[in-house]
Amino acid sequence: MKILITGGNNAKALKLMKAFPSHFVLLADYGDVPGIITEKYAFSSLGVLNKDSIAHILLNFCITEAIDCIIPLHDYELEPLAKSAVLFGEYGIQVLLPDADNVTDYMDKEGIVFLHFAVFIHGDCIFSSEENSALKKLSSTFNGVFGYNNADDLKLFTI
Questions:
Q1: What is the pTM of this model?
Q2: 102-136 in b/e burial notation, b at 16+ Cβ within 10 A?
Q3: What is the pLDDT of residue 20?
Q4: Domains of the chain
């Protein structure tokens, strides 16, 4: 599986790679990005940032690069991608975010620093940075990467 993580120039994106040891991860960001390619990961540029056409830029990039799953880390990508998740799905690309109706409920507007993060796919916690995590199985439509200090208060892991 080929996974795209946006915000690839940020340390949070590098931390997130630990959750996908058996997949190829493409770390991408807007503007200049180092040209590094290894067996397990690579860096790539998404081009010039245009917040008005984020979903279009990312869909085009995902199709061109044969991406199977996208994890957006920039806060300005969350709502456009959540709203476009069905379109991405038609191309076989999973957008790892909560449903568009609920995405704003999980946005971190206070800039909290999280001790831990967890990855949920279809309600199952597939990775947690905390050993012996108390995270429970959630709704089968629950997807995303969440930061937390307390397992009862999940917020999207963004930059």
A1: 0.92
A2: ebeebebeeeeebebbbbbbeeebebbbeeeeebe
A3: 94
A4: 2-156 (3.40.50.20)
